[in-house]
Amino acid sequence: RYDATSPLYRQAAADADGWMKRAHALAEDYFGHDGQTLYVFTADHGFPDVGGHGGDEPSTLTTPFMAWG
């Protein structure tokens, strides 16, 4: 509903970042900071700056993937 430059979109992204940080902290506390836990975060697709859902732009066809552990 909002484009990627919208304050509402940016707030939603910041909220998601906060939830991931909280999930990470909870897992680290649960597993005792063992240094052996792998975290994988991904999303369904990118989002163009002009808004919309889907399309053929590289930003909407790329699935973000991050892993560390």
Short description:
The protein is α+β, with helices and mostly antiparallel strands and 69 residues long.
Explain the layout of strands and helices:
Elements: H1 7-30, E1 39-42, H2 58-61, E2 65-68
Antiparallel strand pairs: 1-2
Protein model, in words:
The protein is an alpha+beta fold. The chain contains two helices and two strands. A two-stranded antiparallel sheet has the order 1-2. The longest helix has 24 residues, at 7-30.
From the spread of the alpha carbons, the general shape counts as elongated
Radius of gyration: 15 Å
Structural class: alpha+beta
What about the largest sheet? 2 strands, antiparallel
β-strand percent reads 5-15%
Strand order of the largest sheet: 1-2
Please count the helical segments: 2
Uncertain spans, ≥5 residues at pLDDT below 50? none
As a percent range, the share of helical residues equals: 40-55%
Output mean pLDDT.
79
Features:
single chain, about 70 residues, alpha+beta, two-stranded antiparallel sheet, 2 helices, about 40% helix
